[in-house]
Amino acid sequence: MTQQSSAKLLTLVQERQCISLEELPACFPELTWNQVFLLVDDLSRHALIRLQRRGFEYELRALA
Fold it and tell me: Which of 9, 28, 43, 55 could join 48 in a cystine, given CB atoms 3.0 to 4.6 angstroms apart?
């Protein structure tokens, strides 16, 4: 995982405004599911994205 992966994820969420957590691994084939989740966790903890539950799924939303 790199800063580049974090920037790519943040850009993806900002462009789409909303993306499901289940879609992310396909967007990052070079990373494992655990690495993708760590990126989400890190960006969420730094208040750059919001992870939200919608029914049985989770989605990411851009902040600001």
Answer: 43
pTM (two decimals): 0.84
Strands (E), the chain: 18-20, 49-54, 57-62
How do residues 15-24 score in pLDDT, each as one tens digit?
A: 999 999 999 9
- The answer to whether 19 touches 12, Cβ cutoff 8 Å, is yes
Query: Residue 4 to residues 18, 45, 57: CA-CA distances in angstroms?
Result: 20, 18, 26
Q: Domains (ranges, CATH) in the chain?
A: 3-62 (1.10.10)
- Compute the chain's Rg from CA coordinates: 11
